[in-house]
Amino acid sequence: MADSAEPNSDRETRAERVSQAYAGNRLLQAMPEEARAALKSTMSMTALARGHVLFDVGEDVRNTYLPCRPTMVALLVVTAEGREVEAATIGWEGALGGIVSGGLKPAYGRAVVQAPGPAFIVPTARLDEMRQRFPAMGDLFTRYADALIAQMMQSVACNALHTIEQRCCRWLLSAHDRSGEDVVRLTQEALADMMGVQRTTVTAAAKVLQADGIIQTRRGRVEIRDRRKLERRACECYGQVEAHFERLLPEIKD
Predict the structure, then answer these.
(1) Which end of the chain is more exposed for a tag (fewer CB within 10 A), N or C?
(2) Is 248:146 a contact under the CB 8 Å cutoff?
(3) Residue 148 belongs to some domain of the structure
(4) What CA–CA distance (Å, rounded) separates 107 from 144?
């Protein structure tokens, strides 16, 4: 009997690890259990490194990525001159790559890992099959796609109407939510690239926030010292997107 006890213990440990891993991505956690079971044979987990390009402009989107904390991936619009501007940032609350289409469609933007960490990978064609097979899962992804479009629309308004400091605060709040930690692993250069501004501009805004005790910058990291003050200094865009997200997807909010 002792010989069989250890394998059972190992299986229980593996099951606990899988359960914890699924909890690392809110969309995956909210999927019907039977859908997750059906995906299991084609779903894998990987570690994403900072700066890794998941897909680029014009490439077929063959895989869908479901980031887990503290991973963050930026969707970037790339200009003819090679400049990049953030359209959306995705973390443990969502997914990217073939969210609406069935995959094998050319990507409009570039997906770059901004904060390293784990993520699940599912072949997009397989995920599309599962959406057809499980209507509740299809509805979940449709609502998420709507929330993602809202985030992009609000980002356009924010970039056009609000100050650098307000935009910086908005992004830091979103990054704080996704990381689950007070220290966000992000360089000022990466933040400047996503905001489409010079690094010196972001550095100046960060110095003001740091002087007011709101954040503390370190090499490659930003520590959130006072969340409430950060919220007050941000523009309305952060709250608007969060409220819309909660209306559409209440089951995947904290």
Answers:
(1) N
(2) yes
(3) no
(4) 18
Model pLDDT for residues 46-94, shown as the tens digit of each residue? 999 989 999 999 998 899 999 998 899 999 988 888 888 888 889 999 9
Q: Evaluate the omega torsion of the peptide bond into residue 70 and state whether it is cis, within 30 degrees of 0.
A: yes
Parent domain of 72: 14-134
Question: Residue length, the chain?
Answer: 254
pTM of the predicted protein model: 0.84
Structure tokens at 7: 């394998």
Q: Which helix (H) or strand (E) holds 87?
A: strand 84-90
Residue type, 124: T
Clarify whether residues 29 and 130 are in a common domain. Answer: yes
**Residue 117: how many other CB atoms lie within 10 Å:** 22
Q: How confident is the model at residue 13 (pLDDT cuts 50, 70, 90)?
A: low
Q: Which CATH number fits the domain that encloses residue 180? A: 1.10.10.10
Residues 111, 54: contact at Cβ < 8 Å? yes
